[in-house]
Amino acid sequence: MPSIEREIRSFIVENFLLAREENLGDNDSFLEKGIFDSTGILELVSFVENRYNIELEPDELVPDNLDSIASLAQFLQRKLAAQSAIPEMSVPAPSVQSGL
Amino acid sequence: MNATSAVSPDILKIDAASETERITANIRDLVFKKLRRKGAVVGVSGGIDSAVVAFLCARALGPERVLVLFTPEADSSADSLRLGKMVAESIAAPSLLENITPILQAAGCYERRDAAIRQVVPDYGPGHKCKLVLPDLLSGDRYPIYFMVVQSPDGKSEQTRLTAEAYLGVLAATNLKQRTRKLVEYYYADLKHYVVAGTPNRLEYDQGFFVRYGDGAADLKPIAHLYKSQVYQLAAYLGVPQEVQNRVPTTDTYSLEQSQEEFYFSLPLKKMDLCLYGKNKGIAASELAPLVGLPEQQVERVYNLIDAKRNATRYLHMPPALVEPIPEI
Known about the structure:
The complex is a heterodimer of chains A (100) and B (329).
Chain A: H1 4-17, H2 30-33, H3 38-52, H4 63-66, H5 69-84
Helix pairs in contact in A: 1-3, 1-5
Chain B: H1 16-34, E1 40-43, H2 48-61, E2 66-70, H3 78-91, E3 95-97, H4 101-106, H5 109-118, E4 129-133, E5 147-151, E6 157-161, H6 164-192, E7 195-197, H7 202-207, H8 228-238, H9 242-246, H10 260-265, H11 269-280, H12 285-292, H13 296-313
Parallel strand pairs in B: 1-2, 1-7, 2-3
Antiparallel strand pairs in B: 4-5, 5-6
Helix pairs in contact in B: 1-2, 1-8, 2-3, 2-8, 5-6, 11-12, 11-13, 12-13
């Protein structure tokens, strides 16, 4: 079962880093690294909602939850655990094809 | 806020008279000598920026060498045309009205936009109005994620977060408006052997608040170096009609009234202006914060957002890329 961190990293590398030779640490700020523009953030949110079959509330769309691989993974683990008592670090099967 | 700032509240104050002289000399030199054209087309929207550019061009070239163009469309506010006409009358320049709605309809602008909106608001249709908004950065540390505000025919408003696909669909369709306006401006520029004067202020130019080959296209941009509050100072000096000076800046792109800060800057323009100046001059967030009236952490956040926006919109300023330079040109 892939870790949430690995899935997020893979999504970002495939959709945003593309040919850019950049190292992205788990705690690097997406904003400071300039990974996303306004469209990119929406793509990230859509990916997360579709992949983990959750809905993000407006007050959850904050940098504390979304601004690095590590913070997003931790947020998702908390959200998934609270939502359906799924054990931490496990990932549900994809409900929707990812990638925009 | 009790703290006082070491930064002068007059940091954005300019000598409007000498700045006007400098810009008008520059316009004359560009139009007549470098670009070798006979005058300037100015698309006037009823807003402060295009009004100031029209006034400056009239001073520089003579009002008879300025063509003021009004290009309203179905979603334009009636005020835009009324105030635009007021500007043209004030400078005694010839003006033309070209309603671009038929061109936009033929290009499918409204249909394509509505189809994109229906991806997130399925019952969106005739009688509905819409606008794109960003969250208010002042209300907390939030991501600049766009929401669509839709007003149904019975007046009820709902706010829905956009998907990336819907956002890009709305943007691609509405960008047809700015590109069509530019198409019409260049038609008249060709017809009269004029240049097209662009109207961005520094905040818009720096932060990429324009459509590539739409309102971003122009032969000269005479106020692109001026902060928004400096544009207001020039407007007062030049005698731009008071009603135009008092108007809240809007995008005039969506059927619901949309302020520029809702759509792009997410902070009141005065604060955004000061933050951009502070960042450009290397003023520490802690020094600037009392003057802006924001906590230091918030100013720091705005500084970071300015960089993020510059990175995201850098390509808008780039000329078409060539595989190798052509030295003969």
